[in-house]
Write a structure and sequence with these properties.
alpha+beta, 4-stranded antiparallel sheet, 6 helices
Length: about 250
């Protein structure tokens, strides 16, 4: 081995080793996928793991984030004109998560600096609004994003809980996240953070598939992949049902 590759290898080892030592988390989920059937009324997902206290001592807090698939949305500002609410300015934004749950062992402000939360995209209040068209002012962007978050919270698709992560003996932790009936399908991302003195000392990420199964899956696939055939089938079914009802009444 020449001296140059040896020096490069040593430099890489110097940078990689601290990162490897810093990751003090081992994590897992109670389920490796979520199957949505016709009678799906929501469920609770358990997220858990272990903490290695040796490198840094007892950590300050753990945050778990479950982020749903991204979506582009169109928000329309309404205004009351002559007693009627009509659409005014439109705000196309995206991609923004269709689902977002952030749970922690204590209030986020207690152990994570505000700028660090923004950089790590932790919490709905740190989401960034990407405008797909137009040039709205910063104030309009913030107002549109706040409206989007309120709508998601109303539908129970955005949630935060500062006491949902339980740390046991500074070595184990567990958290529960409620999955509502109206959760979007797709690939969800899980993120686990461990913090010490305001910085990340442990991080793990993974994926959680959420799929529709059964007859709903077949209809959904047909609607998206064979839209013309799906539409013609719907029209044919409606005509057949109408003809059947008319035939029954003629006999009477």
């Amino acid at each position: 081995m020449t001296k140059r590759p040896l020096i490069i290898f040593c430099l890489l080892a110097m940078f990689v080793a601290p990162v490897a030592r810093a990751n003090v988390l081992v994590t897992d989920l109670s389920k490796d996928q979520i199957s949505i059937r016709g009678d799906f009324a929501g469920e609770t997902l358990l997220l858990f793991g272990a903490i290695d206290p040796n490198p840094h001592g007892a950590i300050d807090g753990v945050v778990v984030v479950l982020r749903g698939p991204g979506e582009n949305i169109m928000l329309r500002k309404k205004r009351k004109t002559l007693g009627i609410w009509v659409n005014q300015t439109a705000y196309p934004m995206g991609p923004l998560p269709g689902f977002l749950a952030t749970v922690s062992s204590a209030p986020l402000a207690d152990f994570i600096p505000d700028e660090e939360r923004r950089l790590l995209n932790i919490g709905a209040d740190k989401l960034q609004a990407n405008m797909l068209s137009g040039t709205p002012s910063d104030e309009e962007q913030r107002a549109a994003l706040a409206a989007f978050i309120r709508l998601k919270q109303k539908d129970r698709l955005f949630a935060e809980n500062a006491q949902a992560v339980e740390i046991i003996d500074d070595r184990l932790f567990r958290a529960e996240i409620n999955l509502p009936a109206g959760m979007p399908v797709g690939r969800y991302v899980t993120e686990f953070f461990a913090f010490k003195n305001g910085r990340v000392v442990g991080y793990r990420t993974g994926e959680l598939p959420v799929d529709i199964v059964g007859a709903g899956h077949i209809l959904g696939e047909a609607a998206h992949k064979q839209s013309l055939l799906y539409g013609l089938s719907g029209v044919a079914l409606a005509v057949f049902m109408g003809w059947g009802v008319a035939a029954i009444f003629r006999r009477r």
